[in-house]
Write a structure and sequence with these properties.
single chain; 133 residues; alpha/beta; 41% helix; 17% strand
């Protein structure tokens, strides 16, 4: 199974990871994870969270209109991916390369290590001209 992980890119229009995942013959699950730890970071705010929830609602509506199932979970990304993988093996993970704060960078390093250990490829197209590393 493929997973398209919507991070802060809560839109369908021109979504390269979704396009790439749909080119494969495997089942694709669209996933968004609300991360409580992220929203406790000093560079986040209630105003940002309110906007984020509005965008998530719009993404859910857009997915429903196109018959694209969107799974929304709350928790730590690694725990949720491990749980999904135990139930239905993940072959590939697709998401934009995030250019967030150090917290998201460290989270993604843990995801990359776990995915590598599980032989899960992670396709991360660049979203902007700003890149990590």
């Amino acid at each position: 199974m493929n997973i398209v992980w919507f991070k802060r890119d809560l839109r369908l229009h021109d979504h390269e990871p979704l396009r790439l995942a749909c080119l494969t013959p495997q089942t694709t699950l669209c996933l968004h994870i609300i991360e409580p730890e992220f929203w406790l970071q000093p560079d986040t705010s209630g105003r940002q969270f309110d906007f984020y929830i509005e965008c998530l609602s719009e993404l859910k509506t857009a997915c429903k209109q196109l018959n694209i199932p969107l799974c929304i979970r709350i928790g730590k990304v690694l725990d949720i991916l491990k749980s999904i993988h135990a139930h239905t093996p993940i072959t590939s993970l697709y998401s934009y390369q995030e250019t967030g704060n150090n917290w998201t960078f460290e989270r993604d390093k843990h995801i990359k290590k776990w995915g590598s250990d599980q032989k899960i490829s992670w396709v991360e197209p660049k979203q902007f001209s700003v890149i990590r590393g």
